[in-house]
Amino acid sequence: MSGELQSTIAANELATLLIPMSGKQLVLPNVSVAEIIPYIEPQADDDKPDWYLGAFNWRNTDVPLVSFEAMNGESSGGQGKDRRIAVLNGLVDNQRLPFCGIVTEGVPRLMRIMPDEVSADEGATKGPSELSSVMVSGEKAVIPDVDFIQQEVLNVL
Hints:
Layout: H1 3-12, E1 14-20, E2 25-29, E3 33-38, E4 52-58, E5 61-66, H2 68-71, E6 84-89, E7 99-104, E8 109-113, E9 118-120, E10 130-136, E11 139-144, H3 146-156
Parallel strand pairs: 5-7
Antiparallel strand pairs: 1-2, 1-8, 3-6, 4-5, 6-7, 9-10, 10-11
C-alpha cells in the first residue's frame, strides 16, 4: 500500500473507545477521554440527584462522578470488580468543570473505525443523555450527549 493511500485512510479513521455500561456500550472519540482509572469510591452528597454519585480526587482535582444509566432513568450498574471510571475532558465549561467521571462496567476497548462503519440504529429508543443509538462495525452502541451530561453536572454543583 502506498504511503499516500495509508495517509488518506489514517485521516478518515477515528480512534474511539467502546465503553461497557449496564446493558449497553458507549462509543466516544478517544480524545474526549482523559483516562480510564480503577473505580474510586466518591465522597457522596445527599442533596444531589441520584445520578450524581459524588466527587473523587484525581490528579489533585475534585472530579464529579455520575451514573450514566441513572441519568437516563435506568437502573444503575452493578458493584462488580471490573468497574472503572472514564474521566472525560471538560467540554461545556472547562474552567468550572475540567473533568467529569462516568462509571463503567468494565474495561473499555479501543476501536479504530471508518465513517462507513457507523450507521444509525433506528429502532432504538434513546435516553436524555444519549445523542443517538448506532451500529459500529456491527456492534450496538450509544453516542452519549457529553454536553448534556456535563451541563447537568454544572447545574447541581
